[in-house]
Write a structure and sequence with these properties.
Elements lengths: L1 E5 L6 E7 L2 E8 L5 H15 L9 E7 L3 H18 L3 E5 L6 H13 L33
Parallel strand pairs: 1-4, 4-5
Antiparallel strand pairs: 1-2, 2-3
C-alpha cells in the first residue's frame, strides 16, 4: 500500500492510497493554509477509512514541486518522516506527474522499485520569498545615551 501526499498548493491536501496500481482510498481538503493543522489528521483518517493501520504502508510518495513554499515543505517533511519511521521506500513525484491518476500509479511503481532517494528535497520552482522580521529590538536605557 503506497501513501501518496500532495501539498503543492496553499489550498490543497491530497492523499491517496494506492495498491496494485489502483487508487483504493482518497481524501482531499481545499482549505487555504491549513496543511500544518490538517495533514496528520487526514493521514490518520484515510487509513481509518480503509480499515488499515499505517503499518500496512509499504511506501510513501510525495509531490516534491513545484509548489508553494510552506505547503510543499509540510508534505515533503511528513513523507520523509513516515518513510524513515516505518523503514519503507520513498518516492518523489512532480506536480505534473501527480495530475493523471492513471499515470500516477505507474510512475510510482517504477520509482519505488528503483528506490531513488533516501529523502525528498522540495523544489519550489522559484526562489522562496522569505521576508525578514519587522520586529525592532527594544532599546534599553543604557543604549540611548541617557
Amino acid at each position: 500500500m503506497i501513501l501518496f501526499i500532495n501539498t503543492s498548493q496553499t489550498d490543497l491536501i491530497q492523499l491517496k492510497l494506492i495498491k496494485d496500481d489502483k487508487i483504493t482510498g482518497q481524501l482531499e481538503s481545499r482549505e487555504n493554509f491549513k496543511q500544518s493543522e490538517l495533514l496528520l489528521l487526514l493521514i490518520d483518517q484515510i487509513f481509518k477509512n480503509a480499515k488499515l493501520k499505517i503499518s500496512a504502508c509499504t511506501a510513501v510518495a510525495a509531490v516534491s514541486g513545484p509548489g508553494a513554499f510552506s505547503a510543499l515543505r509540510l508534505g515533503v517533511a511528513t513523507a520523509n518522516a513516515l518513510a524513515l519511521a516505518l523503514k519503507i521506500p520513498l518516492a518523489e513525484v512532480t506536480a505534473v506527474e501527480a495530475e493523471d491518476n492513471g499515470k500516477l500509479a505507474e510512475v510510482l511503481r517504477e520509482k519505488i522499485v528503483n528506490h531513488q532517494s533516501p529523502v525528498i528535497i522540495p523544489k519550489y520552482g522559484r526562489e522562496p520569498n522569505i521576508t525578514k522580521s519587522r520586529i525592532v529590538p527594544a532599546r534599553h536605557d543604557n543604549e540611548s545615551g541617557g
